[in-house]
UniProtKB/TrEMBL annotation, chain A:
Subcellular location: Cell inner membrane; Cell membrane
A cellular component term, taken from the record's GO annotations: ATP-binding cassette (ABC) transporter complex
Membrane found in the keyword field: yes
Family, as annotated: Belongs to the binding-protein-dependent transport system permease family. HisMQ subfamily.
Official protein name in the record: Glutamate/aspartate import permease protein GltK
From TrEMBL, chain B:
Keywords, comma-separated and alphabetical: Amino-acid transport, ATP-binding, Cell membrane, Membrane, Nucleotide-binding, Transport
Domain of life: Bacteria
GO molecular function, one term: ABC-type amino acid transporter activity
Listed name of the protein: ABC transporter amino acid permease
Similarity section: Belongs to the ABC transporter superfamily.
């Protein structure tokens, strides 16, 4: 009587074992975190919204914003140059991406912070009119603007690659068909290429913004008061190193989670547009 | 004169001659079938007609107007992107791979050009699109995405997308390449309907039965040259050129 035989799924022994081992590890970790007094959770909570830290968080957010706000357009320009017919434009774009992707962010930051050694004064000079205006480099490239510059230039290199990959994901037949219908180059881009490239660009751009947020933490080395530096300032006074590093980490977690949620929301809206009207 | 006139048309790519002194006239309302082996330059010729590919010499006129260039004295100056785009709205093209826009529904694929380029009213364009979709039996698929359609259905959407622009000439690249024999015949019927409505057409194919079913004039191409040109019936029954005869026998 085959219809009343009971079906028994095969036992996944390896997976069961792994589950037991991981559960034990998680339990041990949680136990140590909450039982180890040196985590000093009360200090973590006390400092979580300390004014200095919140000010630092604001600096971190500002740096991220400026890096993305200027980095993305610059990256778009670089991607467009890479697609241009002119060999010079192509080469300059390629060279830019090569340099700024190869030199570590930290080195670039020191470089811009110390650029005054190379160009002590910046001057606005027009041919025929001579020098209109000049000022010491150090007045313009303060810690904050040096950090923004480094982040923007670094971001632009990555962004241009993201955009280039997105544009290349749209088959040339799509461009041909749009041009054959009578779209101008900008019409082809706006109506046909970008909407399709966006699906490839968006997830990568989301990751890029999150890694920019984390990259801003390097500015603490030039004493710029971001969230990490603010935490360091407090623990240098109080010696609560670990609790304050936890505070800084928690803030990075919070902002990253908010960014990810924003990314999922936008991606969700885009994929809904995939559905027929 | 009215219709499509191609004269002394040549194109080289890195030293290799792809099109060699092409002369072809398709009078208004008539059909020209371009026949020839693979690599003979048929697709390139079509792409040159609406200036998707540049030419090195020669001239194309559509209903008297030079395509892609402006003549000043004895020089042809290439038109601006916007001017060429304007001219392309008068030339319908159906690609071998259809190239429907995958991010738009069937209806949106069809209405996007009249809406965005010709700036027509949305309501009017949708009505027109639905009428055209009905003539190709796809009115129930208006809101589907192209990826959910079969190859033959996508093909017909691509044709409607070109027709809604009310072009002065239609260019078809291998319209039967991806169709099974039954669909080939129905495609031939659809194109004959268009020809009865006095549409000027250039149809590329290497399928003989399809070319025969279309009637009209046939131009036989090989190695970038048109080596024989004449009414369909004459060319199929009494080919003048030995290469044409070979091609007809082999296929
Ligand atoms: N962009 C290009 N670069 C180099 N060669 C090209 C290019 N486009 C076309 N060709 C060459 O031009 C010749 C004609 O190509 P075309 O696609 O026009 O042929 P066809 O007659 O349409 O062939 P098929 O029947 O296979 O589609 C071929 O030899 C091809 O290799
Ligand atoms: Mg071809």
């Amino acid at each position: 009587m085959s219809h009343n035989l009971v079906i028994v799924p095969k036992t996944k022994i390896a997976e069961r074992l792994a589950t037991i081992v991981v559960a034990a590890c998680v339990a041990a970790l949680l136990y140590s975190i909450f039982k180890n007094p040196r985590f000093e959770w009360q200090i973590v909570f006390a400092n979580f919204t300390a004014p200095a830290l919140l000010k630092g968080l604001l600096v971190t957010l500002e740096l991220t914003f400026f890096a993305v706000f200027f980095g993305f357009p610059l990256g778009t320009v670089l991607a467009a140059m890479r697609q241009a017919d002119s060999r010079l434009l192509q080469s300059v774009s390629w060279f830019y991406v090569w340099v700024f992707r190869s030199v570590p962010m930290l080195v670039q930051l020191f470089f811009w912070f110390n650029i005054a050694a190379l160009y002590p004064r910046l001057a606005l000079t027009l041919p025929g009119l001579g020098e209109l205006y000049s000022f010491p480099t150090n007045h313009v490239l303060t810690g904050f603007s040096a950090a923004v510059l480094a982040l923007v230039l670094h971001d632009a290199a990555y962004t241009s690659e993201i955009i280039r990959t997105g544009l290349r994901s749209v088959p040339t037949g799509q461009r041909d068909a749009a041009r054959a219908l009578g779209f101008t180059n900008s019409g082809v881009m706006y109506n046909i290429v970008f909407p399709q490239a966006f699906r490839v660009i968006l997830p990568a751009a989301g990751n890029q913004i999150i890694s920019t947020l984390k990259a801003t933490s390097v500015v603490s080395v030039i004493a710029l008061q971001d969230v990490l530096y603010s935490a360091q300032e407090i623990y240098e006074r109080t010696y609560d190193v670990i609790p304050l590093l936890i505070v800084a980490s928690l803030w990075y977690l919070v902002v990253t989670s908010l960014l990810s949620m924003g990314q999922y929301w936008v991606e969700g809206r885009l994929s809904r547009k995939d559905q027929p009207l | 004169m009215s219709g499509l006139e191609i004269s002394g048309f040549s194109r080289k790519i890195s030293g290799k001659t792809i099109l060699d002194n092409i002369n072809l006239i398709v009078p208004s309302g008539q059909t020209c079938v371009l026949l020839g082996p693979s690599g003979s330059g048929k697709s390139t010729l079509l792409r040159c007609i609406n200036h998707l590919d540049r030419i090195d010499s020669g001239i194309i006129r559509l209903n008297g107007e030079i395509i892609g260039y402006r003549q000043t004295g004895d020089k042809l100056y290439e038109l601006s992107g916007g001017e060429i785009a304007r001219q392309r709205t008068r030339i319908g093209m159906v690609f071998q791979q259809y190239n429907l826009f995958p991010h738009l529904s069937v209806l949106e694929n069809i209405i996007i050009a009249p809406l965005k380029i010709l700036k027509k009213k949305r309501g009017d364009v949708i009505d027109q699109a639905l009428v055209l979709l009905k003539t190709v039996g796809l009115e129930s698929h208006a809101h589907a995405l192209p990826s959910s359609l079969s190859g033959g259905q996508q093909q017909r959407v691509a044709i409607v997308r070109a027709l809604i622009m009310q072009p002065e000439v239609m260019l078809f690249d291998e319209p039967t390449a991806a169709l099974d024999p039954e669909l080939v015949q129905s495609m031939a019927r659809l194109l004959k309907q268009l020809s009865e409505q006095a549409m000027t057409m250039v149809i590329v194919t290497h399928e003989l039965s399809f070319a025969r079913a279309l009637q009209g004039n046939v131009a036989f191409m090989e190695n970038g040259r048109i080596i024989e040109h004449g009414p369909s019936h004459d060319l199929f029954t009494h080919p003048q050129h030995v290469r044409t005869a070979d091609f007809l026998r082999q296929s």
